[in-house]
């Protein structure tokens, strides 16, 4: 009997080796650490910092930045929202998936609730990532073209696989969890119309959905085996591409031999990942203080497929209503780098800066049809100076991705900076980072104790 796509996917997950390759384990630990650092910073600044009181104060699971525990579902919801709220969390650029904002909160909540051991946690986290990336690669940018954020569509499914493994679900249970989780898939792009922070919550909802799907299956709820196939299946509904199920079947064939997690990119600046190579291109100009006054015009060539996120509608992108909204604004972020020579977390707090807005008015854009996106995240700018001369800068791919990977020290440096932004003492942060890097399972209880002692 021919297996369905879901059956091929789940069978591949169950066949993953108990002992992961060392480079995969190290990548998993670093991505867990990065997500925790971003979430801690977000608990003190940014649009989701008021969420700490949302979680019910009764349970074994940690809410980042809070002194009391909560339920697994609430921890996944709040932590996932925190991690995604600063646009500082990792991305698999080819699949356009923010994996750790969903998978780290879901897996860590399930691990705390079930007292899982470090190797089980790392393996579940890796399995979730491998499923998530394959879901994205099966329909390249398809979810986005249909109006959905891919992370919030595929995140519940991948997360359910990860927490299902930790819960000890068998093959049939995991198949049920995949199908039930697909009932939670959602997350549209309407947040772009006014810079709404609901995009952050989409990752949290996906993480919560992973926990809920697993719990529903444990309670007896079942799901269809052909959840990916047909016009009314997962890809037909969310990507308008039923044929993507066939591509997922093919992509599932190398589970256990091809590891996509190691390709996931860390973020060096807290804004939409599409904007990162543009920031780097402006930085390459080497502008001195006040050098932005020499700029007559900056033309940005935007990879086709990115424009609806970072360039449209252009007038609104040039004049964001609040600094947090500017995380998705090509002209504002380009101008920010030109004016200040860096892009920091603090740049997206409060109202937009008047000097930055003035430079943003001199930024223009055009479509770049054959840029290499989504396999690459490139950028090209053409700067016309006030003396009439022109300079072009091209960035072939984003910093931190598979072609330009970060060393572990840079991930740890980012984590320590985020902990400082969260007001945590360096003595704790350094020890915590070493623990995660070496063991993969942090003592989140120590974080709760630290927050409690700080009052």
List keywords for this structure.
455 residues; alpha+beta; 2-methylcitrate dehydratase PrpD; 60s Ribosomal Protein L30, Chain: A; 2 domains; 4-stranded mixed sheet; two-stranded antiparallel sheet; 49% helix
Give a verbal description of the structure.
With 455 residues, the protein is α+β, with helices and mostly antiparallel strands. It has two domains: 5-263, 2-methylcitrate dehydratase PrpD (Orthogonal Bundle); 273-395, 60s Ribosomal Protein L30, Chain: A (2-Layer Sandwich), CATH 3.30.1330.120. Helices cover 49% and strands 7% of the residues. The chain is built from 19 helices and six strands. The protein has helices spanning 5-14, 22-42, 72-85, 99-114, 118-138, 142-145, 150-166, 171-182, 198-218, 234-238, 244-251, 276-283, 307-310, 314-318, 330-340, 354-360, 408-421, 426-439, 444-454, and strands at 61-62, 69-70, 295-303, 363-368, 379-385, 390-395. A four-stranded mixed β-sheet has the order 4-3-5-6. Helix 1 packs across helix 8, helix 7 packs antiparallel against helix 8 and helix 17 (408-421) packs antiparallel against helix 18 (426-439). The termini are far apart. The mean pLDDT is 95.
How is this fold's topology laid out?
Blueprint: H1 5-14, H2 22-42, E1 61-62, E2 69-70, H3 72-85, H4 99-114, H5 118-138, H6 142-145, H7 150-166, H8 171-182, H9 198-218, H10 234-238, H11 244-251, H12 276-283, E3 295-303, H13 307-310, H14 314-318, H15 330-340, H16 354-360, E4 363-368, E5 379-385, E6 390-395, H17 408-421, H18 426-439, H19 444-454
Helix pairs in contact: 1-8, 1-11, 2-3, 2-5, 2-17, 2-18, 3-4, 3-9, 4-5, 4-7, 4-9, 5-7, 5-11, 7-8, 7-9, 8-9, 12-15, 15-16, 17-18
């Amino acid at each position: 009997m021919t297996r369905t796509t879901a059956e091929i996917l789940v069978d591949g997950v169950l066949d993953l080796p108990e002992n992961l390759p060392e480079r995969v384990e190290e990548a998993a630990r670093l991505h867990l650490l990065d997500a925790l650092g971003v979430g801690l910073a977000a608990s003190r600044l940014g649009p989701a910092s008021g969420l700490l009181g949302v979680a019910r104060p009764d349970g074994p699971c940690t809410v980042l930045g809070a002194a009391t525990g909560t339920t697994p579902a609430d921890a996944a919801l709040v932590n996932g929202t925190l991690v995604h709220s600063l646009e500082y969390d990792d991305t698999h650029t080819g699949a356009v998936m923010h994996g750790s904002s969903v998978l780290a909160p879901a897996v860590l909540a399930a691990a705390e609730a079930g007292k899982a051991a470090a190797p089980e946690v790392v393996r579940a986290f890796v399995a979730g990532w491998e499923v998530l990336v394959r879901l994205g690669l099966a329909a390249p940018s398809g979810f986005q073209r249909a109006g959905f954020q891919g992370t919030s569509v595929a995140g519940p499914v991948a997360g359910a696989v990860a927490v299902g493994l930790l819960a000890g679900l068998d093959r049939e249970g995991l198949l049920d969890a995949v199908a039930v989780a697909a009932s939670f898939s959602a997350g549209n792009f309407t947040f772009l119309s006014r810079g709404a922070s609901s995009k952050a919550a989409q990752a949290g909802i996906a993480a919560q959905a992973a926990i809920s799907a697993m719990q529903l299956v444990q309670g007896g709820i079942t799901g269809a085996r052909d959840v990916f196939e047909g016009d009314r299946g997962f890809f037909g509904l969310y990507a308008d591409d039923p044929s993507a199920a066939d591509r997922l079947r093919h992509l599932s064939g190398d589970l256990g031999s091809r590891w996509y997690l190691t390709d996931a990119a860390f973020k060096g600046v807290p804004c939409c990942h599409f904007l990162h190579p543009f920031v780097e291109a402006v930085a390459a100009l080497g502008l001195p203080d006040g050098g932005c006054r020499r700029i007559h015009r900056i033309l940005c060539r935007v990879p086709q497929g990115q424009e609806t996120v970072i360039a449209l509608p252009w007038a609104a992108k040039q004049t964001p209503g609040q600094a947090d909204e500017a995380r998705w604004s090509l002209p504002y972020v380009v101008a920010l780098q030109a004016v200040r020579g860096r892009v920091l977390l603090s740049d997206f707090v409060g109202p937009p800066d008047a000097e930055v807005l003035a430079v943003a008015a001199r930024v223009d854009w055009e479509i770049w049809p054959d840029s290499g996106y989504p396999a690459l995240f490139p950028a090209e700018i053409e700067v016309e100076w006030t003396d009439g001369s022109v300079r072009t800068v091209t960035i072939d791919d984003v910093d931190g991705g598979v072609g330009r990977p970060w060393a572990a020290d840079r991930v740890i440096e980012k984590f320590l900076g985020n902990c400082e932004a969260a007001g945590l003492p360096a003595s704790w942060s350094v020890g915590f980072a070493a623990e995660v890097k070496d063991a993969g399972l942090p003592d989140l209880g120590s974080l709760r104790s630290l927050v409690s002692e700080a009052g």
